[in-house]
């Protein structure tokens, strides 16, 4: 389990995800699409931060490649992409983002993204270890590794935002990450176990 997460996924989730693999893949495709869109929204909202813009533009490109990879898998299985029904997990986490101070809000948006990537990473690794088909196992292992990199990137970007504004105060980002990680664990514990990535 990644160090950001305060609680592991319920072991029953893997069986549920595998039992309805088409639904899991459909949800995963939507997750990748939304990850790309969220990164581009941060770029649009903060064009004055060139390091953030470059990093998140590249991340959005990677997420779109993941989206296409999962879409291709759905195509192989003859499964269409349904309308996006929303993600209660991500919505609950985003609701914890502070309003008001622009720097605090940006830090929270980045840390929430890091936690979403951390949970995705954990669950994609779980799938990679349980999928019966070697090709799918390899795909999910690659995707999980990429999510781990994205998780670290978002934390580094959040520290950079505070470091750029007030030198020597990146510890406050880590403290806020701890608070949000506890919230994330509570959110996960309160959600039903379904065939979704989150």
Q: Would you kindly provide a written description of the structure presented here, covering whatever features stand out?
A:
Pfam families: MiaE (PF06175). This protein is mainly α and about 200 residues long. The chain has a single domain, classed as Ferritin. The protein contains 7 helices and no strands. It has helices at about 10-20, 20-45, 50-75, 90-95, 100-130, 135-165, 170-190. α2 (about 20-45) runs antiparallel to α3 and α5 packs antiparallel against α6. The radius of gyration is 17 Å and the shape is globular.
Question: Which properties best describe this structure?
Answer:
198 residues; mainly alpha; Ferritin; 75% helix; globular
Q: Outline the biggest β-sheet.
A: none
Helix/strand-derived category reads mainly alpha
**End-to-end distance:** 15 Å
The CATH architecture classification is Up-down Bundle
Q: Care to count the β-strands?
A: 0
Radius of gyration (Å):
17 Å
Beta content: under 5%
- Provide the CATH topology: Ferritin
Number of helices: 7
How does the SSE layout of this entry go?
Layout: H1 12-19, H2 21-45, H3 50-76, H4 88-94, H5 102-130, H6 134-165, H7 170-190
Helix pairs in contact: 2-3, 3-6, 5-6, 5-7, 6-7
Q: Summary?
A:
With 198 residues, the chain is mainly α. The protein has helices spanning 12-19, 21-45, 50-76, 88-94, 102-130, 134-165, 170-190. The model has no long low-confidence stretch (mean pLDDT 94).
């Amino acid at each position: 389990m990644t160090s950001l997460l305060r609680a592991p996924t319920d072991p029953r989730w893997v069986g549920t995800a595998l039992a309805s693999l088409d639904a899991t893949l459909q949800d995963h495709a939507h997750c990748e699409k939304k990850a790309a869109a969220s990164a581009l929204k941060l770029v649009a909202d903060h064009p004055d931060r060139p390091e953030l813009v470059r990093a998140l533009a590249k991340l959005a490109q990677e997420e779109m490649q993941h989206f296409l990879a999962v879409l291709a898998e759905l195509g192989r299985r003859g499964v269409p992409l349904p309308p996006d029904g929303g993600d209660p997990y991500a919505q609950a986490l985003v609701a914890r983002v502070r309003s008001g101070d622009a720097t605090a809000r940006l830090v929270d948006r980045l840390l929430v993204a890091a936690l979403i990537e951390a949970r995705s990473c954990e669950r994609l690794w779980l799938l990679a270890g349980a999928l019966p088909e070697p090709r799918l196992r390899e795909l999910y292992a690659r995707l999980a590794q990429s999510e781990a990199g994205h998780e670290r990137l978002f934390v580094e970007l959040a520290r950079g935002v505070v470091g750029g504004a007030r030198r020597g105060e990146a510890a406050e980002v880590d403290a806020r990450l701890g608070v949000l990680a506890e919230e994330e664990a509570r959110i996960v514990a309160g959600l039903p176990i379904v065939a979704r990535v989150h």
